[in-house]
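Data deposition worksheet. Section B asks for the primary sequence of the deposited chain exactly as it was used as input, without tags or linkers unless they were present during the calculation. Section C holds the resulting structure in token form. Section D is free text for depositor observations; keep each observation to a single sentence. Incomplete worksheets are returned to the depositor.
Section A, Depositor: J.P.
Section B:
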Amino acid sequence: SVAIVTAAYMFVPQVDVMLHCAANISLQPPLRTALRDNYTGTKSMLDLARACGPRLRAMVHVSTVAANGH
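Section C:
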């Protein structure tokens, strides 16, 4: 959730590895829900990763076939 990502910014100075493995895996979600869960959530995590700066050694993203859309 956006609230969780926002709260996570307090840990930015301590983060060196991030793991992102959240998505909506429903095969036919409404477009707005799919974008919110799969695109916007991932973008928020990438923004958080950028905020970590050079201390961040790895950002691992795990997706799903349903999140891929193919």
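Section D:
Strands lie at 17-20, 58-61.
The chain has a mean pLDDT of 81.
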